[in-house]
User: Fold this.
Amino acid sequence: MKKRVLVGMSGGVDSSVAALLLLEQGYEVVGLTFKFTEEFDSNDAVKVANTLNIEHHVIDYRDIFKETVIDKFINDYNSGITPNPCILCNREVKFNFLYQNMKKFNCDYIATGHYAKVIDDKLYKSVDLRKDQTYFLAQLTNEQLSHLLLPLEGIEKDMVREKARQCGLEVADKKDSTDVCFITNKFREFMSDKLDNIPGDVIDVATNKVIGKHNGLRSYTIGQRKGLNIGGTADRMYVVGKDIKKNILYIALGDKSDYLISTSCVLKNINLINKDKVKKAKAKFRYRQEEIDVEIDYISDDEIIVNYPEGVKSVTPGQACVFYREDECLGGGIIKEVRKDNKKLWYLL
Assistant:
């Protein structure tokens, strides 16, 4: 009998071609589209499923998604941290729901259009490093990975679009989604009535003098340079700290990037994919960031200290730190606290 695969289909070109490739490989494919927001349009996914002549289902998960992802995203911003909702969604919602529905629809595997590889229940970078998405998948469990197929693992993005054209899929040239899926307008507009924004003082971190007023502390992120709207005469200024309790925004004038450099951080929500507690690894603290050498101290099952003595700029609570050993993604955690020379950086919270 053919193995059945439940494919998460968003209506984009990647998940559509993933379903197509699985069909060509001899699998029996079942498409599943999650409706996460009011604005989400499932029409493209339905059209692709009809073109491929596969079983397809649309399930409404708006309430759970709002509670699990959107509300936490807003609460994190109000707490002063900068969350990564895509990692949270993959861990708590998307792959969790796919795995649950795999059994409901009598499937043997789940699949998505992510760019990564799964080999022996372990996670590896994709062939197309420009699109590699292991950073966003680093919180997946071994159980989820053991049932996960990633058909795009050895294909570059240009080839994916060409494959879609050859097979007559209308989504072949559909624009990639690069923003947070539930924010359909500008970030400031989306968050305008959701943040506890109270105007307060802006202080120059070098002189400790008030140089202006901010529009609400929760709207700013560490390292931000553009859209500050706080006045002042300096040609260059950027955010280096937020004091939530005192409602103070700390900024640096000119090029004083040393204020943003840390040498270690504490992680929570630890997920080690291969269960191997390595002491040294490569790591990155943002999706597009270059990997650096780090040393890892294991404090408990849910707390790790990551050391990088040469220093890294703008490591931010709420973002993910992901570990690598060559092409293998080892997992990682969520940044809880940032330090410099073993002292907590006062300006980050």
Observations:
- The two ends are 56 Å apart (CA to CA).
